[in-house]
Give the backbone structure.
Amino acid sequence: MRTDDEGREILLYYINVGESCIMSFLGGLHNDTSKVKAIAEEESEILFVPIDKVNLLIKENPEWLDYIFRLYHKRFEELLEVVNDVAFKKMDERLFNFIKRRCELGKTNTLHITHEHLANELGTARVVVSRLLKQMEDKGLLKLGRNKISLM
């Protein structure tokens, strides 16, 4: 996710098993600080590759460079989707799609999350999220509980 100077955050993409954060990778490759932060939502095992070994990996294993380009392509498409959502979709649609996607990723119909956390992930205010969730509940799209949302 990306955080602005006022502490507001927006979700850019998820990192799944076998993937890497391309922004962190490129930051390290260019001896620069990453412009994003990652938060593990579940227990994770992370492999760190020393930057001074990356060139050797690329020279000796061309499939490593292919992996980097495929990952860069995937992340770029995900970022385009975020830009598209922010520019062209209303917050209620973004919120509902976010909840559905998180449930799909977790293979569940219930998302354990606070309204504040949802607002941070979507780059909006908690009161906006709470109002929209109540409207969705009234329409029968979801059921609200204490720190949880269940899709109907």
In short: The chain has two domains: 2-87, 90-151. The radius of gyration is 18 Å.
